[in-house]
Amino acid sequence: MIHLQIEEEIATITLDTNESNSFTLESFQKLSELVRKAESKLSKILILRSSRPGVFSQGLNLTELSGERTEEFLNLFLHYFFGILEQVYTFPGVVIAEVGGHAMGYGAMLAMASDFRYGMEGTRIGLPEVKLGIRVPSFVAMMLRDIIGSREADSHILQGNAYKASEAKELGLYDEIYSDANSIKDSSLKLARKLTKNSFGATRSSKQALRYLNGDLKKMLEFDKEKTFESLFTEDAIEGIAAAVAGRRPQFK
């Protein structure tokens, strides 16, 4: 499903949930466990990659989300949804996202939570949530604003269109883009090995300093959980998710 390999202080998590690498509650739980394990092993670098050609992650498994509407399930689902983003964003070492395919919704969010992002030509990345009737969290908006600037981030979130890889590179959302997955892996590993030579203590402290600049993350995440929970019960969210599962255009009021 999702695999972890640790070698020479470099931890690599490979996503392999299904053909679109979408996330269920079960796969969320596994990913959270592996990120936590990578941190416990004092990994200096965490690499996120996909085993699926042309796909990093297309986001959430909307079939499960449309079927499970109990408060208990959604609370637990959102606990992991936001918890994993926080784990990646605050990981003590450097996080490199090998975005070797399309990254939509939660896939894009995982990339945004990383420190470096390498993309692939001919793919897209973005937040289509407004087209699904789902709220974009403040935490996600903050990360995107930090990367590409507030005006561009706000426009992207409100329009819900995906960026081509070349556009993402021009905006700074990708550090580099490549024509094939092997080139992404080679460049990622080259950077990872270079960064392992830096002081881990200084890297960890510097990342804490960088994250401190964005204020009380815990408070923001709690606010996001509450508001996202509420939004999932709106008519638009129910219709948007159902339409996506059925492969049709949503009919919002």
Query: Span from first to last CA?
Result: 38 Å
Beta percentage is: 15-25%
The CATH superfamily label reads 2-enoyl-CoA Hydratase, Chain A, domain 1
Would you tell me which CATH topology applies? 2-enoyl-CoA Hydratase, Chain A, domain 1
CATH architecture: Alpha-Beta Complex
CATH class categorisation: Alpha Beta
Quaternary structure state of the chains depicted: single chain
Strand order of the largest sheet: 1-2-3-5-7-10
What is the count of distinct domains? Answer: 1
In one word, what is the shape? globular
Element-by-element helix/strand order: EEHEEHHEEHEEHHHEHEHHHH
By DSSP, the count of extended strands is: 10
What structural class results from the helix and strand content? Answer: alpha/beta
Global Rg: 17 Å
Which blocks of ≥5 consecutive residues have pLDDT under 50? none
Helix content: 40-55%
Largest sheet geometry: 6 strands, mixed
Number of alpha- plus pi-helical segments: 12
**Average pLDDT reading:** 96
GO molecular function: isomerase activity
Protein name: Enoyl-CoA hydratase/isomerase family protein
InterPro entries: ClpP/crotonase-like_dom_sf (IPR029045), Enoyl-CoA_hydra/iso (IPR001753)
Keywords: Isomerase
